[in-house]
Design a protein that fits this description.
Layout: H1 2-17, H2 31-40, E1 47-48, E2 56-63, E3 69-75, E4 81-87, H3 91-98, E5 104-105, E6 109-110, E7 118-123, E8 129-135, E9 138-144, H4 148-156, E10 158-159
Antiparallel strand pairs: 1-10, 2-3, 3-4, 4-9, 5-7, 6-7, 7-8, 8-9
């Protein structure tokens, strides 16, 4: 039995020594072109004017349904998640969906943002945070597992300024 265990361990070590694990780098999505197309449709979405150094958008979508919704999924420089969701939807439902069903509301904060000066804050026991404000009849929610100061930097970068095609 001991010999069999040693043989199996030897095979595992041998295979691991000569195995090349491929590196996976997700695509970096050009969210600005999506924003341009939304603006050309006559809407004014809130979006980051620029991302912090090392951040990138890994997924961007816009649902053109009855209640248009913009979603940006971002990875921070230290591989945390940050998201932006904008939709004409009840804030409590959005917080349940994107921050967590156990999220509690904290004190509102004043941030230097071009789209809103007062933001409601939310946190869940798992370490996710959210910042929400009403912008042009839409609820804008910035959320994720990124540290609060990084999410606040994202909130402060939001704008509705027209982009050139």
């Amino acid at each position: 039995m001991i010999v069999l265990v040693l043989v199996v361990l030897g095979i595992v070590v041998f295979r691991g020594t000569f195995r090349n694990t491929p590196e996976y780098e997700p695509d970096h999505v050009d969210y600005r072109s999506l924003v341009v197309s939304i603006q050309q449709a006559g809407l004014t979405p809130a979006y980051p004017a620029a991302l912090p150094d090392g951040w990138y958008v890994k997924d961007a979508s816009f649902d053109t349904g009855e209640r248009p919704a913009l979603d940006l999924a971002m990875t921070t420089a230290d591989d945390h998640f940050a998201g932006l969701h904008e939709e004409d939807e009840d804030l409590a439902e959005l917080v349940d969906t994107y921050v967590g069903t156990d999220a509690t509301e904290g004190e509102p904060v004043a941030l230097d943002s071009a789209v809103a000066s007062r933001w409601r804050t939310f946190s869940d026991p798992g370490g996710d945070h959210g910042y929400a404000a009403e912008v042009s009849g839409q609820t804008v929610l910035v959320y994720g597992s990124a540290p609060q100061d990084e999410l606040e930097t994202l909130v402060e970068s939001l704008t509705t300024a027209p982009l050139k095609p």
